[in-house]
Amino acid sequence: AGAASLSFSCPGTAAPRETAFLAQHVQAVFTQLSHSPTVPVGYVFFLADEEVAQLRQFRTVAQQVAEGGPQQLHQLFEETARAYPNNLALSWLGTTCTYRELNQLADQLAARLQHQGVQPGDFVGLFLAKSVELYVGMLAVLKAGAAYVPLDLSFPPDRVTFILADCGARALLVNSNLPEGLAAWPGLVVNLALPAPTVPSFLEPAAVGPDSIAYVIYTSGTTGLPKGVLIPHRSICHLVRAEQLLFQPTPQDRVVQGFSVAFDASLEELWLAWAAGATLVPVPEETMKAPDALPAFLVENQVTVFSTVPTLLSLLPATIPTLRLLILGGEVCPPELLAKWASRQCRVVNTYGPTETTVVATAADFVPGQKLTIGRPLAGYDVLILDQLGQLVPLGAAGELCIGGAALAAGYLNRPELSASKFNTVSELANSFVGRLYRTGDLARFEADGNIDFLGRIDTQVKIRGFRVELAEIESLLLQWPGIRNAAVALKEGPDGVKKLIAYLILDPNHLLDERAVRAYLRERLAPYMLPAALVPLTAFPLLTSGKVDRKALPYPVVGGDHAPTRELTLPHT
What we know:
Layout: H1 16-35, H2 49-59, H3 73-83, E1 88-92, E2 95-98, H4 99-115, E3 123-127, H5 132-143, E4 147-150, H6 157-167, E5 171-174, E6 188-191, E7 213-219, E8 227-232, H7 233-247, E9 254-257, H8 265-274, E10 279-282, H9 285-288, H10 294-300, E11 305-308, H11 310-313, E12 325-328, H12 335-342, E13 347-352, E14 362-365, E15 376-377, E16 381-386, E17 399-405, E18 411-412, H13 416-422, E19 423-426, E20 435-446, E21 452-457, E22 461-464, E23 467-470, H14 471-478, E24 484-493, E25 499-507, H15 515-523, E26 534-537
Parallel strand pairs: 3-4, 3-5, 5-6, 9-10, 11-12, 12-13, 25-26
Antiparallel strand pairs: 1-2, 7-8, 8-18, 13-14, 14-15, 16-17, 17-20, 19-20, 20-21, 22-23, 24-25
């Protein structure tokens, strides 16, 4: 029999180790196919033993979260209140609360909720303006044994009504009158702005455990309806401890609370402070929306820790002298933006994590001159990069970023099929991983040093100003409007560098779009950050060879140009 030979060349920039692995891959594929010629190539495992060992090392970090201690989120707060009773837990517009005071207020409200019928396992909506009552309410729901469901005041009534019905909320906490669209909600409404009724003040210890649900975050869904992500106490407590190790907050820190509590990044802000005995400094909504006013607020309040999204950070001057830790997440971050802040001796950390993995899963300290990545897993997390068949991809190859470990969500509320498809139980992988994995839908690859390079989305999910948006949800609603034959939504960067959601529409012949009516229709059904900045009629969509819409080829609308929007582009308020 004749011998076959194969030669190949690699670019001079390729590392010798990568080249050696590639040669082993080719040899392994041909060897296995020669023995089993009918096996599909996709099922051939060709990674070298040394490469598998390297992937095992990159999968997790050696640092571990300390075992023991409180296993419920409210117990973490109570532990801090015992250790630092007189430290300020909250500083809100001239009003301050010590840890002892905030804990007592939460106990009183928790006892009231129990008296009014809230039981362990219930869901309680938080429809509260930023205030002392918001934070008291959050802790009280947990202490009563229930799970809280945060709702942003900017959500339209239809969205709030759907969420309350979907979770079967036992009660809704408010600190103002309900909007007209919610007045008919039949459940218990507790208005914290009114004098509290006289009720027994004894708080019954709640029968909850580490696997009980602590909170539910609703995120954008592909069906046009939001989906609830169930986070158990075990997962959020693990995240809190892992971030204490990573960020090392101290009782002297003053931590900004700027995110909406309906966005899971707010958990990072809250518990960086409250697990360390530090002071939480909430930012008024109007200040968060005014980039000119925000820096003065941060300076005046002597903040030391600030977690934000790159879009907002890009609007701020790097002149906050007390800031020692800046945490970025929610969007891909330009390295030049981080360099501006890192140059003033402020630690800058780039983070990554879907809601389903409890806020943050990986992190990287920014080092000027080095490539910006999403870093390595937090303590107790596992990160694998898999192909479409669920097998490990080679070092440096792109695949789907999958996350396991101690902080995964329990799944999606009332969505068992979706939970089963996104959370896979793995019995054995070549690098010895066994357990549950969340398939993020993100593309990534391992760099040679073990850092993870984020490459974008596999599907149509995007992030804008830190909020996760399923483009399909917006498209689904547009397609329900009479006269719209097809719709495609894309996140486009304009000449000013600001990213906007643009809706591209194909209309029925001779149909005139009532743009004002369409916008009113969307405002009733979508959160403000999901509203398209422009509606652009097209005669046809650019397509990929697969027949799918080529979103990258969709033209950015130019006022007065060939692809003019129906109105001037303006960003919706958030």
